[in-house]
Amino acid sequence: MKAKAQAKKVILYIAMLAICVITVGPFLYTLFISLKPATQGIYDGLLPTRPTFANFSDAFYKTDFVRYLLNTAIVTGIAVPFNLLFSSMAGYALARINFKGRSIVLTLIISTMTVPFQLYMAPLFQIAGELGLRNSYVGLAVLQISTAFGIYFMRQAFLTVPKELEESAYLDGANRFQVWWKVAMPLVKPTLISLAIYTFTFTWGDYLWPLLNTTESSMYTLSIALAQMSQNFDGGNLKLISAASILTTIPSLLIFIWLQKYFISGQTDGAVKG
Amino acid sequence: MKKKFSFTLVTALLLVGLMACSGEDEGNATSEAGSSGELSGKVTMWTASLSGEPFDSYFADLEAAFEETHPDVDVVIEDIPQNEIEQKVLTSLTGDDVPDVVNLAPRYMINIAAQGGLLELDDLVSEEVQNSYLEGPFKAGYFEENLYALPWYLTTTVSWYNNEHFEQAGITETPKSTQEIYDTAKAITDVTGNPSYFQIINQGDTVIEKMISIANGDPIVEEGKTVLAENEEIVEFFTLTQKMYEEGIMPQENAEGSFSTAQELFMANNLSLLESGVTFLGPLESGAPDVYEASKAGQPLNDLDAPVNVAVMNFSVPSKTDNPDAAVALAEFVTNAENQLEFAKVAGTVLPSTNESLEDEYFTNPGDSPKALGMLEAATSLERSKVLIPPVENSSELYEIVKMAFVKNIQGDMTPEEALQEISEKWDASFEKAGLTPTF
User: Fold this and answer.
1) In this complex, do B2 and A240 lie within 8 Å of one another by their Cβ atoms?
2) What average pLDDT does this structure show over A93-117?
3) For chain A, first and last CA: distance in Å?
4) Is residue A270 scored above 70 in pLDDT?
């Protein structure tokens, strides 16, 4: 019996290891390429013979990496708090306020998720221009603020908050705004953190909209810089591209590691009630 | 607490409003040509995937030189990733933030011109300027008998081979026919134990160009009727590529057939011979220094008088430009002989499209690095090069048909005759549907 349990465990570990290699493998492979010295070819063995950070410093100093990093950080810094704020306000209204046409509004919001970006990017480009949002940080972040996904995600989370808690707050004299802010919001914290991570990841890696909405390269974000490097007219330097990719991924990785505990519980929270 | 939160919220929203306003009207400060006839105003030029050094310095100097000649003109040069430049130009045409000069590949130019997005340049560019360009690349700027682009830099097809593999197999010359490709590649594979030859497919366009080169002057389409199945050399090409794939002389990855796959295999020492542009060596210098040193260039693997494809990058002027005079003047300036020569030297792997710049010693005696040798071969093959596939509306469909048939052929799912028959039937149907009767 014990041997059977052990065998099961071994199989489980092998499976986990295999999944780990599949998911982490490409990242490690990119890391190894980025650490290879100038004299070593990228296909000359898996590991760097004499690891060097020269490619990282080249990516950092020989390109406008710092400017693009700053642009991306500012855009993400605007998108994340505002998406959390507006999505949670809209989500709460859709979960708790009984207004006429609520289900229609919800259906409309969800249905926008099925429309491909390519279909509405031209009118969006025009509107952004007319509103003076071209080449501005808000213009780059605007697409990630109050997203349909965020509203739906937050609505699902608010549905899990016991109504009794909110009712007792009303009895104590709280208004709707206070109930939302002081009672409901703290209870959906894991979902908020999950949404923050999603918004961070989408905004950090967003490519097409920042490219369309900028006519000045000084406003480019990291994803555009990476595309410029990899689409270089003669193929580019793959070690440099790998180093820049790693540098671009590090912030997302650190934030995910920091908040992963909440992220996992937040994901399951959203799925409890329909 | 409530007040504090409300204050924070209002402040944050105000901040967003202010930041949004800060970008307003930037980039719209374009004006027309001056009343005295002298050029003036802002002119924005978009290049495609030419960012970073040495290009940044080159374009900064170019910008300064143009502004010195035209002191009232403000030139802005921005770089856009090449894969998205067509989409970005088309989107910009729906609004007012339109560039004045754009660096486009012919396939993008045709699509944008077909939608009325580009300015006709026939009457805006003098005959003298038009005559300064090489005839073939200049013709690539035409669509439906109107000129929409001026040619800039070029790449022509050359052959690349790993000289170490050649030496191991005792081969001293590059092949000049499909049969010679087979014999050479087989000898190398027998020695190295690896696949040695790769036929780049890309979207199918590279195979079409190869077939036109093989046909060597005989058309593969006559007035909308496909005649390639009757060409014995093309049948031989399909037969031997199928044989090479079956015998492992061509790698399994050839069924995917992209340029980048060929580059990866060549860099990993798993390939010995192929045809491509001079830019093929780009990532090898840093990514595989040993293979780079062993790389050598030769003429394309066909008859020495067969036509060779030339890939053109050109400049167009969007129809919604606010400053057409300055835009055309800038496009002419960037593509003049002096600036093209300088650009070719800076880029190191491209050719200029002006007659005068090609006479420079740089192209007759470029040095002995693998890249320089490639450029020497490219400059040699430029004499017989032209845009082999004419700009036709159904080109994407033609590419796809050839790609599917060629892949099925090398994988042995079809006989060479069946594959060529399929191409002929589907191409004929496509030309009939589109109402086209081209000959090429």
Assistant:
1) no
2) 92
3) 42
4) no
What residues does B314 pair with on adjacent strands? Answer: B104, B151
- Structural domain boundaries enclosing B213: 157-309+387-434
- Contact status, residue B23 vs residue A213, Cβ threshold 8 Å: no
pLDDT at B9 over 70: no
With a cut of 70, say whether residue B19 has pLDDT above it. Answer: no
Higher per-residue pLDDT: A232 or B128: B128
DSSP category for residue B177 = S
Query: Based on the structure, what is the number of domains in chain B?
Result: 2
Decide if pLDDT at B20 tops 70: no
d(Cα B132, Cα B436) in Å, to the nearest integer?
32
Instruction: Note whether B266 and B406 are same-domain residues.
Output: yes
Model confidence band, residue B334 (pLDDT cutoffs 50, 70, 90): very high
B84 vs A contacts (CB less than 8 Å) = 208, 211, 227
CB-nearest partner of B23 from A39, A139, A236: A139
- Considering the domain architecture, whether residues B250 and B287 belong to the same structural domain is answered as yes
Per-residue tokens: A27: 């990242």
Contact B397, B325 (CB under 8 A): no
Residues 260-289 of B with CB under 8 A from A: 260, 263-264, 267-269, 279-283, 286-289
CA dihedral of B264, B269, B274, B280, whole degrees rounded to 10: 50
Please indicate, yes or no, whether residues B176 and B273 belong to a single structural domain of this protein. Answer: yes
**Separation between Cα atoms, residue A265 and residue A271, nearest integer Å:** 10
CA gap B387, B210 in Å, rounded: 12
